[in-house]
Amino acid sequence: MRSDSTLPPAAAQSTRAALGMSLGTVGGLLAALVAMLVLFGTLSPTFLSLPTFTTIANEIPDLLVMAVGMTFILMIGGIDLSVGSVLALAASVLSVTMTQFGWGVLPAALAGVALATAAGTLTGAVTVHWGIPSFIVSLGVLEMARGLAYSLTDSRTVYIGSAVDWLANPIALGIAPAFLIAIAVTVVGQIVLVRTVFGRYLVAIGTNEEAVRLAGVNPRPYKIAVFALMGLLSGLAALFQVSRLEAADPNAGEGMELQVIAAVVIGGTSLMGGRGSVARTLFGVLIISVLESGLAQIGASEPTKRIITGAVIVAAVVMDTYRTRRSRIKPH
Asked: pTM for the whole thing?
């Protein structure tokens, strides 16, 4: 495998600059998170408590691992709208193979994750081979995956009991294994992005794919790989969700793709590709989760919660556009 030194000087410089910006907004994200904690702590006397924090920690693993995968996809300038439906499909496969076919937890879980990975690979392969925008391809996969989930479960929730609840059961300080696994995935994702040739190629592809191609590197397998990874992580998220609910709902994950994309964009990853950080995505997930939990505790109505969350997303996109324009006019 080639090193990033084989890239043209301009592309290599852009790659290093994009990776170097990974700490650029951490202070701002941390300040925003602290401000939200103070605000909701003032409005709700029970918000700043261990039960609140453990509840948030144990509810974010599925969102977090999917956000890690979406970070990689946005880094190459793509997008995947099918992640919520793929999660529901993986959960449905897990539940049906266990309840109807008598499979054990491990083979059923592997089957669900494998099918989710296949769905991601399909999205990537069609996008790359035919040059179709991933937005459109993933929209089609979204419908297919949701339809398969309904078909497998007869459009009903399938209960599997406590077979996989160990992932959601707290082991220390109220923290469940699912949270620890999600943090491990985040750490590995950040290392891959900033410390490996694979990660540098993703940044370079998102920055200037033609320059990467002219350098003798074929970007196609890398682009397919990140969509396959997104599918795999959606399958893992399905395990986390099923372990928490002890059931698989074919309606699970509806609208979750918007939460995932919002968390990644709030974390500073550019929708245009070439700039982002898995570590900052963690902050984006925390901001989304703290916002939802805080609004729920102060008794905000569902319309109000959606308006405020939407406003935060719009603000994040505006900031991303501003950062992109500033980076283009900044002298090198």
From this structure: 0.90
